[in-house]
Every structure is written in C-alpha cells, then in structure tokens.
C-alpha cells in the first residue's frame, strides 16, 4: 500500500497542508480512500477554518472518514428505490463529531434532506453493514442503507442517548439500539461473522455462538463482559488476558495486537509504533508532529487523550510541540505557573525565590 504513504498526514495534529475534502463525489472505494482525509478535528476547540459544509461525515455516527472508532471507510449509497428524490438541502448539518464518544450521532433529528445530498448519503462501511434491515450482497454491496439512515433519525442510542442509532440488540424482545462506535464502548458483544450485537444485559447469549465468543488468548468465553472486540479481524480478547483496560475509549475502535495500525497513516509499516496508554490506539513515531526518533521509555498518551487536570485544556487544542508534564496531566502553561507557586501554601512566590522554602508559609 505504497500510495497510502502520501496520505500520511498528521491525523493527530493540525493539518499541515490543505486537507479540505474534495467536492468530487466518488463511489469507488479505492478512489475515496485515496482522497485526502478530512480534517477530523473540526469539532475540537481549535476548529479549522474550513466551512462546515465541506466536511463529509457519516449520516449515522456523524464522524468523518478518519475516525478512531474503526468504522472503516465512508461509502456513498444511492437510494434503494426510485421514489424519493430529496432536494439537496441548504440547511447545514451539525458539525461532525470530533471522535469524542459524547459527540457520536445527532442531538436533534437531522433534517433528512441534509443527510441525503447528491441523491444518496455517506455512511461508514461498518455503520451501514451492522444496521437493522441492511442486506449484505456479494462483493460487499449493501442494500437499504438509505432506509437505515431514515430510521436512525428517530432512534436513540442506548449508550450515548443521541440519534442515529441503527444497530439493534439481537436478543428477542430487547429494544436497545446503538451507533457502531457505541456498540463497543457500551461493552456489548459483537459477532463480525453474523453482524450480530448482544447488549450488555443479553451478553450471556454470546456463549451460544461457540468459538466465536472465545478469547484468542485463553481459548474460552470466560468473563464475557471483559471481552474486547477487534474491529480489524473480529476476534475477541479478554482485557485481562492482554493486561490492558476495558474503558469505553479503549473498547471503541479497538484493534488487537495483530491488527493494530497507525491511526495517522492507517495501513503502513508496523515498525516503531507507539501505543497510547489511555485509548490503546497505535501511532508511528514518525507520523507524530513533531516526529519522535525513538520510542519513549515511559508511558505515552496520544494528543486526543491529553487533558490538563489544572485548566482542562485538551491536547488537540494545543500545538503538537507543546510540552506536557506529570504523565500528560499538566499542560505547559500550568506547569510554568506551578513552578512559581509554593507547593505547600499554593501562593505565588516571588519568581526569583527558589521554592525549596516559600517565604510566605515558612
Ligand atoms: Zn459512521
Ligand atoms: Zn451512541
Ligand atoms: Zn439486549
Ligand atoms: Zn482470555
Ligand atoms: Zn484483530
Ligand atoms: Zn503512521
Ligand atoms: Zn489516546
Ligand atoms: Zn493547564
């Protein structure tokens, strides 16, 4: 996948070139993959100057193509029947989500016409394939995706309580629906072979699926709620068997050790990959901005997962070169402020005083 390398722009920081998505609409999977990735930070505080309408997002999960949640590529789906041709909408859609699990989907029922531009809609492959009523034909063609989008505008996700949920729990009588990213975040069981989801309350039914519910390390179903689902190969792993956590942010878009690819360049070399301690996503050292020459010896957090515990600033709101302290829990500015404060009385001391002993509290 050599041509992918030209696409290796910093997903984890400010775009360095003009990465506004092209207006041309291609339905071929290869072509759409080759397009520059839309800036997926538009919802972050440091919003780009791109007008919102130029950002293409999924009509179900409302994330852009390059998302951390493993939805695969955005695909264009035409109407499944001739009858409804919605006029292109002039009313703007809400800003796409910024990969924060709280911004998946839609808070208000989105105007249908706004979701259907160019007589069709854009939906991630997995968001579409898992949806109720969508049929998978040969050669990965999917049918009735437009109908799923229409029903999603009325369906709340049981996990994030936002609209656009189309993936039902398979248990009889259960009325829970999820977005694709929320399926994993909620701790539901997912079967990639059968495209079947079982919500946390009905997860014990996964044992009926036999080997598919077995952990790839210990070869048993064991504690089903502890299973992580790999969005790459569909295998399951116990968090405990891999000695990692199972937080919602780790579960969503999780990739097993065999499938882990760099979130910036996607399929690429599998050398020098840094794994974020908070979200378990991988990044090449050379795909970061600024690039790192070697793997750090202590734990590392990706920019999305850095939040200053003092001022609340997020990593994506600061330049990639910003320094962080205390395991990425204190931003540069607060650290500077801290160093002029007495650690005992928290009062600012004369900066010229060395703070071994503050003159105010001693
Ligand atoms: Zn989606
Ligand atoms: Zn959701
Ligand atoms: Zn259920
Ligand atoms: Zn296991
Ligand atoms: Zn995998
Ligand atoms: Zn990379
Ligand atoms: Zn992270
Ligand atoms: Zn701070």
TrEMBL record:
PHD-type domain residues: 89-203, 256-308
Main location: nucleus
UniProt GO MF annotations: histone H3K4 methyltransferase activity; transcription coactivator activity; zinc ion binding
Keywords attached to this entry: Metal-binding, Nucleus, Repeat, Transcription, Transcription regulation, Zinc, Zinc-finger
Bias-annotated ranges (Polar residues): 80-92
SMART domains: PHD
UniProt name for this protein: PHD-type domain-containing protein
Protein's organism: Labrus bergylta
Phylogenetic classification of the source organism: Eukaryota, Metazoa, Chordata, Craniata, Vertebrata
């Amino acid at each position: 996948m050599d041509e992918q390398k030209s696409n290796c722009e910093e997903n984890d920081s400010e775009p360095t070139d003009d990465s506004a998505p092209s207006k041309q609409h291609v339905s071929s999977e290869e072509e759409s993959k080759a397009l520059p990735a839309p800036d997926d930070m538009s919802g972050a505080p440091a919003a780009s100057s791109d007008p919102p309408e130029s950002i293409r997002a999924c009509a179900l999960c409302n994330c852009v193509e390059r998302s951390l949640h493993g939805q695969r590529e955005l695909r264009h789906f035409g109407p499944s029947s001739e009858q409804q041709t919605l006029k292109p909408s002039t009313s703007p859609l809400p800003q796409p989500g910024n990969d924060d699990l709280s911004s998946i989907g839609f808070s208000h029922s989105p105007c249908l016409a706004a979701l259907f531009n160019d007589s069709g809609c854009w939906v991630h492959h997995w968001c579409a394939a898992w949806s109720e009523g969508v049929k998978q034909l040969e050669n990965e063609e999917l049918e009735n995706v437009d109908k799923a989008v229409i029903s999603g505008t009325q369906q709340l996700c049981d996990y994030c309580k936002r609209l656009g949920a189309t993936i039902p729990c398979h248990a009889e009588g259960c009325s829970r629906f999820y977005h694709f990213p929320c399926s994993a975040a909620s701790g539901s069981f997912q079967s990639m072979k059968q495209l079947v989801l079982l919500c946390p309350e009905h997860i014990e039914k996964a044992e009926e699926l036999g080997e598919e519910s077995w952990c790839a390390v210990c070869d048993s179903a064991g504690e089903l709620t502890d299973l992580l689902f790999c969005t790459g190969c569909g295998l399951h792993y116990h968090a405990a068997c891999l000695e990692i956590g199972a937080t919602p942010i780790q579960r969503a878009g999780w990739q097993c050790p065999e499938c882990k690819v760099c979130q910036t360049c996607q399929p690429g070399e599998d050398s020098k990959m840094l794994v974020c301690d908070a979200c378990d996503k991988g990044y090449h050292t050379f795909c970061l901005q600024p690039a790192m020459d070697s793997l750090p010896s202590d734990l590392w957090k990706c920019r999305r997962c850095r939040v200053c515990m003092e001022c609340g600033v997020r990593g994506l709101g600061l330049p990639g070169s910003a320094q962080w302290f205390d395991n990425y829990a204190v931003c540069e500015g607060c650290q500077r402020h801290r160093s002029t404060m007495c650690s005992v009385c928290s009062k600012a001391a004369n900066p010229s005083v060395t703070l071994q002993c503050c003159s105010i509290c001693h």
